[in-house]
Write a structure and sequence with these properties.
Elements (H helix, E strand, L loop, with lengths): L17 E6 L4 E9 L2 E5 L42 E5 H5 L5 E2 L6 H6 L14 H14 L14 H10 L1 E3 L15 H15 L9 H19 L8 E3 L5 H23 L3 H19 L1
Antiparallel strand pairs: 1-2, 1-5, 2-3, 3-4, 6-7
Length: about 290
Protein backbone atom coordinates (compact mmCIF):
# COMPACT_ATOMS: atom_id res chain seq x y z
CA UNK A 1 0.00 0.00 0.00
CA UNK A 2 1.61 3.25 -1.13
CA UNK A 3 1.35 6.68 0.47
CA UNK A 4 -0.77 8.02 -2.39
CA UNK A 5 -2.77 4.96 -3.43
CA UNK A 6 -2.56 1.22 -4.00
CA UNK A 7 -1.87 0.44 -7.66
CA UNK A 8 -2.58 -3.09 -8.86
CA UNK A 9 -2.43 -5.08 -12.07
CA UNK A 10 -5.55 -6.39 -13.78
CA UNK A 11 -4.60 -9.93 -12.92
CA UNK A 12 -4.69 -9.04 -9.20
CA UNK A 13 -8.28 -7.85 -8.95
CA UNK A 14 -11.27 -10.12 -8.35
CA UNK A 15 -15.05 -9.77 -8.35
CA UNK A 16 -16.24 -7.64 -5.46
CA UNK A 17 -13.15 -5.41 -5.34
CA UNK A 18 -13.60 -1.66 -4.94
CA UNK A 19 -11.41 -0.17 -7.66
CA UNK A 20 -10.65 3.37 -8.78
CA UNK A 21 -8.57 5.34 -11.24
CA UNK A 22 -7.13 8.84 -11.03
CA UNK A 23 -8.28 11.50 -13.48
CA UNK A 24 -7.03 14.92 -14.58
CA UNK A 25 -3.53 14.53 -13.21
CA UNK A 26 -4.55 13.18 -9.80
CA UNK A 27 -7.08 15.97 -9.35
CA UNK A 28 -9.83 13.46 -8.54
CA UNK A 29 -10.55 9.74 -8.79
CA UNK A 30 -13.46 7.71 -10.15
CA UNK A 31 -14.63 4.64 -8.18
CA UNK A 32 -16.59 1.48 -8.92
CA UNK A 33 -17.16 -2.16 -8.02
CA UNK A 34 -15.50 -4.78 -10.20
CA UNK A 35 -18.11 -7.49 -10.82
CA UNK A 36 -15.95 -9.89 -12.83
CA UNK A 37 -15.75 -10.56 -16.55
CA UNK A 38 -13.80 -7.30 -17.09
CA UNK A 39 -16.91 -5.29 -16.12
CA UNK A 40 -17.41 -2.53 -13.56
CA UNK A 41 -20.55 -1.11 -11.95
CA UNK A 42 -20.17 2.51 -10.92
CA UNK A 43 -22.20 5.63 -10.16
CA UNK A 44 -22.50 8.88 -12.09
CA UNK A 45 -25.12 11.45 -12.98
CA UNK A 46 -28.43 10.31 -14.42
CA UNK A 47 -28.89 10.37 -18.16
CA UNK A 48 -30.26 13.61 -19.54
CA UNK A 49 -31.93 14.19 -22.88
CA UNK A 50 -29.31 15.08 -25.46
CA UNK A 51 -26.41 14.91 -23.02
CA UNK A 52 -24.57 12.31 -21.00
CA UNK A 53 -23.86 12.63 -17.30
CA UNK A 54 -20.48 13.21 -15.69
CA UNK A 55 -18.52 10.97 -13.36
CA UNK A 56 -17.24 14.00 -11.45
CA UNK A 57 -17.97 17.64 -10.77
CA UNK A 58 -15.03 18.45 -13.05
CA UNK A 59 -16.40 18.44 -16.59
CA UNK A 60 -13.32 17.21 -18.41
CA UNK A 61 -14.94 14.69 -20.70
CA UNK A 62 -18.18 12.95 -21.55
CA UNK A 63 -19.56 9.99 -19.64
CA UNK A 64 -18.58 6.47 -20.47
CA UNK A 65 -22.19 5.42 -21.05
CA UNK A 66 -22.69 6.83 -24.51
CA UNK A 67 -24.23 3.61 -25.80
CA UNK A 68 -23.20 0.14 -26.82
CA UNK A 69 -21.86 1.24 -30.21
CA UNK A 70 -19.14 3.26 -28.44
CA UNK A 71 -17.41 0.17 -27.05
CA UNK A 72 -16.00 -2.43 -29.49
CA UNK A 73 -15.39 -4.95 -26.70
CA UNK A 74 -18.71 -5.52 -24.91
CA UNK A 75 -22.18 -5.05 -26.45
CA UNK A 76 -23.73 -4.20 -23.05
CA UNK A 77 -21.06 -1.64 -22.11
CA UNK A 78 -22.83 1.53 -20.99
CA UNK A 79 -26.01 -0.16 -19.76
CA UNK A 80 -27.90 2.32 -17.58
CA UNK A 81 -31.59 2.56 -16.67
CA UNK A 82 -33.29 5.85 -17.61
CA UNK A 83 -33.85 7.12 -14.05
CA UNK A 84 -30.61 5.84 -12.53
CA UNK A 85 -27.02 7.00 -12.25
CA UNK A 86 -25.68 3.46 -11.80
CA UNK A 87 -23.96 2.24 -14.98
CA UNK A 88 -22.23 -0.93 -16.19
CA UNK A 89 -19.13 -0.55 -18.34
CA UNK A 90 -16.16 -2.64 -19.34
CA UNK A 91 -12.93 -2.18 -17.42
CA UNK A 92 -11.22 -0.43 -20.34
CA UNK A 93 -13.96 2.20 -20.59
CA UNK A 94 -13.93 2.66 -16.82
CA UNK A 95 -10.18 3.26 -16.73
CA UNK A 96 -10.07 5.40 -19.91
CA UNK A 97 -6.33 4.78 -20.18
CA UNK A 98 -5.64 5.45 -16.50
CA UNK A 99 -3.92 3.18 -14.01
CA UNK A 100 -5.88 0.67 -11.94
CA UNK A 101 -5.97 1.02 -8.13
CA UNK A 102 -7.70 -0.98 -5.41
CA UNK A 103 -9.39 0.65 -2.43
CA UNK A 104 -8.35 -0.84 0.92
CA UNK A 105 -10.69 -1.71 3.82
CA UNK A 106 -9.90 -2.20 7.50
CA UNK A 107 -6.86 0.08 7.37
CA UNK A 108 -5.22 0.76 10.76
CA UNK A 109 -5.64 4.40 11.93
CA UNK A 110 -1.89 5.03 11.58
CA UNK A 111 -1.95 3.90 7.95
CA UNK A 112 -5.08 5.91 7.23
CA UNK A 113 -3.56 9.08 8.69
CA UNK A 114 -0.32 8.55 6.77
CA UNK A 115 -2.11 8.74 3.43
CA UNK A 116 -1.41 11.92 1.51
CA UNK A 117 -4.83 11.86 -0.17
CA UNK A 118 -8.30 10.82 0.86
CA UNK A 119 -10.36 8.34 -1.12
CA UNK A 120 -7.81 5.51 -1.08
CA UNK A 121 -8.71 3.52 2.05
CA UNK A 122 -11.01 3.38 5.07
CA UNK A 123 -10.80 2.05 8.59
CA UNK A 124 -14.20 0.36 8.11
CA UNK A 125 -14.16 -3.37 7.36
CA UNK A 126 -15.90 -4.80 4.30
CA UNK A 127 -19.20 -6.52 5.08
CA UNK A 128 -20.34 -9.86 3.69
CA UNK A 129 -17.38 -10.56 1.46
CA UNK A 130 -17.04 -10.20 -2.31
CA UNK A 131 -20.41 -11.76 -3.11
CA UNK A 132 -22.25 -9.17 -1.00
CA UNK A 133 -20.53 -6.27 -2.78
CA UNK A 134 -21.40 -7.67 -6.22
CA UNK A 135 -24.98 -8.36 -5.14
CA UNK A 136 -25.50 -4.80 -3.91
CA UNK A 137 -23.95 -3.30 -7.04
CA UNK A 138 -25.98 -5.44 -9.44
CA UNK A 139 -29.21 -4.82 -7.50
CA UNK A 140 -28.72 -1.04 -7.74
CA UNK A 141 -27.85 -1.36 -11.43
CA UNK A 142 -31.14 -3.09 -12.23
CA UNK A 143 -33.42 -0.99 -9.98
CA UNK A 144 -34.79 2.27 -11.34
CA UNK A 145 -33.61 5.13 -9.17
CA UNK A 146 -30.44 3.24 -8.33
CA UNK A 147 -28.42 5.10 -5.73
CA UNK A 148 -30.40 8.35 -5.78
CA UNK A 149 -29.19 11.66 -7.18
CA UNK A 150 -25.49 12.23 -7.75
CA UNK A 151 -23.88 14.91 -5.58
CA UNK A 152 -20.13 15.47 -5.57
CA UNK A 153 -20.01 16.08 -1.79
CA UNK A 154 -22.88 14.02 -0.37
CA UNK A 155 -23.51 11.15 -2.81
CA UNK A 156 -20.74 10.45 -5.29
CA UNK A 157 -19.11 7.45 -6.97
CA UNK A 158 -16.93 6.69 -3.95
CA UNK A 159 -19.99 6.78 -1.67
CA UNK A 160 -21.63 4.22 -3.96
CA UNK A 161 -18.66 1.86 -3.83
CA UNK A 162 -18.34 2.28 -0.05
CA UNK A 163 -21.99 1.32 0.39
CA UNK A 164 -21.63 -1.74 -1.84
CA UNK A 165 -18.69 -2.94 0.27
CA UNK A 166 -19.99 -2.05 3.76
CA UNK A 167 -23.77 -1.63 3.53
CA UNK A 168 -23.44 1.57 5.60
CA UNK A 169 -25.26 4.85 4.99
CA UNK A 170 -25.65 8.09 6.99
CA UNK A 171 -28.65 7.80 9.31
CA UNK A 172 -29.86 11.30 8.41
CA UNK A 173 -29.84 13.53 5.36
CA UNK A 174 -26.30 14.70 6.04
CA UNK A 175 -23.49 14.74 8.54
CA UNK A 176 -24.64 17.81 10.43
CA UNK A 177 -27.47 18.15 12.89
CA UNK A 178 -29.36 20.42 10.54
CA UNK A 179 -29.22 17.96 7.66
CA UNK A 180 -26.17 19.42 5.96
CA UNK A 181 -22.78 17.78 5.62
CA UNK A 182 -20.63 15.58 3.45
CA UNK A 183 -21.13 11.98 2.52
CA UNK A 184 -18.92 9.04 3.41
CA UNK A 185 -16.26 9.54 0.74
CA UNK A 186 -12.69 10.40 1.68
CA UNK A 187 -12.36 12.27 -1.59
CA UNK A 188 -15.04 14.76 -0.52
CA UNK A 189 -13.51 15.02 2.95
CA UNK A 190 -10.16 15.90 1.38
CA UNK A 191 -11.68 18.54 -0.88
CA UNK A 192 -13.32 20.20 2.12
CA UNK A 193 -10.41 19.52 4.45
CA UNK A 194 -7.69 21.38 2.54
CA UNK A 195 -9.22 24.89 2.78
CA UNK A 196 -10.66 24.10 6.22
CA UNK A 197 -7.26 23.08 7.53
CA UNK A 198 -5.70 26.28 6.27
CA UNK A 199 -8.50 28.32 7.86
CA UNK A 200 -8.46 26.57 11.24
CA UNK A 201 -4.69 26.59 11.49
CA UNK A 202 -4.52 30.39 11.03
CA UNK A 203 -4.90 31.14 14.79
CA UNK A 204 -1.85 28.96 15.43
CA UNK A 205 0.46 31.16 13.35
CA UNK A 206 1.82 32.84 16.44
CA UNK A 207 2.53 29.45 18.04
CA UNK A 208 4.08 27.82 15.01
CA UNK A 209 7.84 28.21 14.68
CA UNK A 210 8.10 29.54 11.16
CA UNK A 211 6.86 27.99 7.91
CA UNK A 212 7.68 24.42 8.92
CA UNK A 213 5.66 24.70 12.11
CA UNK A 214 2.76 26.25 10.23
CA UNK A 215 2.85 23.43 7.67
CA UNK A 216 2.88 20.84 10.44
CA UNK A 217 -0.16 22.38 12.14
CA UNK A 218 -2.07 22.60 8.84
CA UNK A 219 -1.24 18.99 8.00
CA UNK A 220 -2.38 17.88 11.45
CA UNK A 221 -5.73 19.64 11.13
CA UNK A 222 -6.19 18.22 7.63
CA UNK A 223 -5.48 14.63 8.71
CA UNK A 224 -7.73 14.95 11.75
CA UNK A 225 -10.55 16.24 9.57
CA UNK A 226 -10.21 13.29 7.19
CA UNK A 227 -10.15 10.83 10.06
CA UNK A 228 -13.28 12.02 11.88
CA UNK A 229 -15.29 11.91 8.62
CA UNK A 230 -14.18 8.36 7.76
CA UNK A 231 -17.07 5.91 7.58
CA UNK A 232 -15.28 3.58 9.96
CA UNK A 233 -15.14 6.24 12.68
CA UNK A 234 -18.38 8.20 12.24
CA UNK A 235 -21.30 7.43 14.56
CA UNK A 236 -24.08 8.69 12.26
CA UNK A 237 -24.13 5.66 9.95
CA UNK A 238 -26.51 2.70 9.92
CA UNK A 239 -26.57 -0.64 8.13
CA UNK A 240 -29.19 -0.58 5.35
CA UNK A 241 -30.08 -3.64 3.29
CA UNK A 242 -29.94 -2.98 -0.43
CA UNK A 243 -33.59 -4.04 -0.81
CA UNK A 244 -34.56 -1.27 1.66
CA UNK A 245 -32.30 1.37 0.15
CA UNK A 246 -34.97 3.07 -1.99
CA UNK A 247 -37.19 3.65 1.05
CA UNK A 248 -34.20 4.91 3.07
CA UNK A 249 -33.17 7.37 0.35
CA UNK A 250 -36.76 8.59 0.08
CA UNK A 251 -36.82 9.24 3.84
CA UNK A 252 -33.53 11.11 3.66
CA UNK A 253 -34.85 13.23 0.79
CA UNK A 254 -37.99 14.09 2.75
CA UNK A 255 -35.88 15.04 5.80
CA UNK A 256 -33.67 17.25 3.64
CA UNK A 257 -36.69 19.02 2.16
CA UNK A 258 -38.16 19.50 5.63
CA UNK A 259 -34.87 20.97 6.88
CA UNK A 260 -34.70 23.31 3.86
CA UNK A 261 -38.24 24.55 4.48
CA UNK A 262 -37.45 25.13 8.15
CA UNK A 263 -34.37 27.18 7.29
CA UNK A 264 -36.37 29.21 4.78
CA UNK A 265 -39.04 29.94 7.38
CA UNK A 266 -36.41 30.99 9.91
CA UNK A 267 -34.85 33.40 7.42
CA UNK A 268 -38.19 35.06 6.62
CA UNK A 269 -39.38 37.67 9.18
CA UNK A 270 -42.69 36.97 10.89
CA UNK A 271 -45.81 39.12 10.05
CA UNK A 272 -45.55 40.80 13.48
CA UNK A 273 -41.97 41.87 12.80
CA UNK A 274 -42.93 43.15 9.34
CA UNK A 275 -45.77 45.20 10.83
CA UNK A 276 -43.58 46.65 13.58
CA UNK A 277 -40.88 47.56 11.08
CA UNK A 278 -43.46 49.49 9.03
CA UNK A 279 -44.95 51.27 12.05
CA UNK A 280 -41.64 52.27 13.62
CA UNK A 281 -40.79 55.12 11.19
CA UNK A 282 -44.33 56.60 11.62
CA UNK A 283 -44.01 56.57 15.40
CA UNK A 284 -40.68 58.34 15.23
CA UNK A 285 -42.13 60.91 12.86
CA UNK A 286 -45.01 61.73 15.24
CA UNK A 287 -42.60 62.12 18.15
CA UNK A 288 -40.58 64.63 16.15
CA UNK A 289 -43.70 66.60 15.25
CA UNK A 290 -44.79 66.88 18.89
Amino acid sequence: MGLLSHRVERSEIKAGDHIYTWRAGYAYSHHGIYVGGSKVVHFTRKKEAGAAGLDSAIAVSSLLSQGSDECPTFPDCGFQLPDSGVVLTCLDCFLRGGALHRFEYGAPPAVFLAKLRGGTCTTAPADGGADAAVRRAMHLLTQNGGFGDYDVFENNCEDFALYCKTGLLPAAAGAGADGEGIGRSGQAASAVGVPLAALLSTPFKLLAAGPLGMAAVTAGVYCAGRYITDIGVRKDVVKVEVEDLAAHLGWRRAKAEEAAQKRQQQQQPSPEKKASSRLLPLKRKREICV
